[in-house]
Amino acid sequence: MPDFTPEEQRLIYAYARDRGPISWISFYLAVLTAPVAMAAYGMMQSDVLAMSIAFFGLLALIAWGVSSSVRNFKTTRAICMKLASTTPLATSRSE
What we know:
Elements: H1 6-16, H2 20-45, H3 48-86
């Protein structure tokens, strides 16, 4: 087993935790409720400002998701490279 840095270990443990589907659903409901409610209010009232706030709120959430993916990309790649270097490649498929 390769030696992982503390940052790599943190990422492995974060991915390995079993959160279950209820945790993910509740997280996304909590995060998306405010912008969606603001957008619905803006549409009902024909309020461009409310719809703009909702749009930029959702845009911020997307930017947050992308930034966390980019931030973990280098660490994930380093983990994969270490694991790949210790595992022999299968050059032929057994059928």
